[in-house]
Amino acid sequence: MTVKQPVAVLGGGSFGTAVASLLAANGYPVMLWMRDAAQAAAIRESGRNPRYLKDLDLGPYVQPTTDLASVLQRCELVFVALPSMALRSVLAPCSGQLAGKMLVSTTKGIEADTFLLMSQILEQVAPQALIGVLSGPNLAREIADRALTATVVASEHEELCSRVQQVLHGDTFRVYASKDRFGVELGGALKNVYAIIAGMAAAMGMGENTKSMLITRALAEMTRFAMKMGANPMTFLGLSGVGDLIATCTSSKSRNYQVGFALGQGVPLEQAVEQLGEVAEGVNTLRVLKQKAADLEVYMPLVNGLHAILFEGYPLQKIIGGLMSGEPKTDIDFISPDGFAE
Ligand SMILES: NC(=O)C1=CN([C@@H]2O[C@H](COP(=O)(O)OP(=O)(O)OC[C@H]3O[C@@H](n4cnc5c(N)ncnc54)[C@H](O)[C@@H]3O)[C@@H](O)[C@H]2O)C=CC1
Ligand SMILES: O=C(CO)COP(=O)(O)O
């Protein structure tokens, strides 16, 4: 039997743990890097992550470690499952070791000062690596439960896409390939903001018409923004766009949705984030997206409305009233101004 090459996963949170378990189930030795030595020791001892997806048996193929240098020395394929706030600071110091690697970001966020997506940071930090992203409707809890799931690996490098398909494909996990890294990654980052809104709507007891309106107008808004950024809007019709938007906006397993739900119950933002105790990327994305939309003059009423509620002290009811009484618009206005594809 051929011995399989070890694969690295950076980040010992929910998603790193879920990805590690998929790789291990396919027979790949996994070096799961995390910063917390106690957590690594606990995983080594019990075969389970004591903080995230606690009931998931990781098995002997997952080796937790805090030694990033040795992980990078041994693994050619590296999945990055760090929060967006940490990705640059973790990887920049080891940029010398990243040349020639295949780096795949699973992180769905945007860097605050630069408005860079995570794979764009990877390009800066590791100019001689092959870069890709993995994104789709991929709630970690459901992956851990082996729910049937699909995702997208996107990269200009076909060999990276094939490699990721090879290591992750399994009975319950299907990996589609795309060449549109920017579009795939942008969809994953933007949808988190709308999941917060969807969670708020659910907490307020809003009905299915409302939820459906929110999701489809979110898609319109995301697409309008993406086109202004030069992305291909068709990518948003795929798993990483509308697929992830649906999963995250309809599931109480989404942390962004959970933050929104708490907000809808009247919990202040800081407390909602604190009681979650996990990453909800949408909160920071909202801040930078609102500013970028203003700079680019993109009409994003949902983003502006949520920002006004969370950061400008506007009452929710006033924002809802404003959104509903806005001037009449055409439906698919983001494809062409009169609503019809050209
Ligand atoms: N959980 C999910 O269902 C999915 C998450 N993602 C994305 O994966 C990324 C990571 O999210 P999760 O793993 O879910 O978050 P999490 O909140 O479950 O875990 C975050 C992990 O990062 C670690 N961390 C934080 N700062 C660090 C630093 N400076 N250095 C090293 N480690 C650090 C924390 O200790 C924790 O282990 C996010 O961008 C998220 O959008 C993507 C798809 C699904
Ligand atoms: O991106 C996700 C599912 O695809 C996870 O969403 P949350 O970060 O809101 O949990």
From TrEMBL:
GO terms for biological process: carbohydrate metabolic process; glycerol-3-phosphate biosynthetic process; glycerol-3-phosphate catabolic process; glycerophospholipid biosynthetic process. Pathway: Membrane lipid metabolism; glycerophospholipid metabolism. It is found in: Cytoplasm. NADPH binds at S14, F15, R35, Y52, K108, A140, R255, V279, E281. The active site is at K191 (proton acceptor). Pfam families: NAD_Gly3P_dh_C, NAD_Gly3P_dh_N. NAD(+) binds at G11, G12, G13, S14, F15, G16, A140, R255. Sn-glycerol 3-phosphate binds at K108, G136, K191, D244, S254, R255, N256. InterPro entries: 6-PGluconate_DH-like_C_sf, 6PGD_dom2, G3P_DH_NAD-dep, G3P_DH_NAD-dep_C, G3P_DH_NAD-dep_N, NAD(P)-bd_dom_sf. Residues 180-320 form the Glycerol-3-phosphate dehydrogenase NAD-dependent C-terminal domain. GO terms for molecular function: glycerol-3-phosphate dehydrogenase (NAD+) activity; glycerol-3-phosphate dehydrogenase (NADP+) activity; NAD binding. GO terms for cellular component: cytosol. Keywords: Cytoplasm, Lipid biosynthesis, Lipid metabolism, NAD, NADP, Nucleotide-binding, Oxidoreductase, Phospholipid biosynthesis, Phospholipid metabolism. It catalyses: sn-glycerol 3-phosphate + NAD(+) = dihydroxyacetone phosphate + NADH + H(+); sn-glycerol 3-phosphate + NADP(+) = dihydroxyacetone phosphate + NADPH + H(+). Substrate binds at K108, R255, N256. Its EC number is 1.1.1.94. SUPFAM superfamilies: 6-phosphogluconate dehydrogenase C-terminal domain-like, NAD(P)-binding Rossmann-fold domains. Residues 7-160 form the Glycerol-3-phosphate dehydrogenase NAD-dependent N-terminal domain. Belongs to the NAD-dependent glycerol-3-phosphate dehydrogenase family. Catalyzes the reduction of the glycolytic intermediate dihydroxyacetone phosphate (DHAP) to sn-glycerol 3-phosphate (G3P), the key precursor for phospholipid synthesis. This is Glycerol-3-phosphate dehydrogenase [NAD(P)+]. It comes from Thiopseudomonas denitrificans. The lineage of its organism: Bacteria, Pseudomonadati, Pseudomonadota, Gammaproteobacteria, Pseudomonadales. The gene is gpsA.
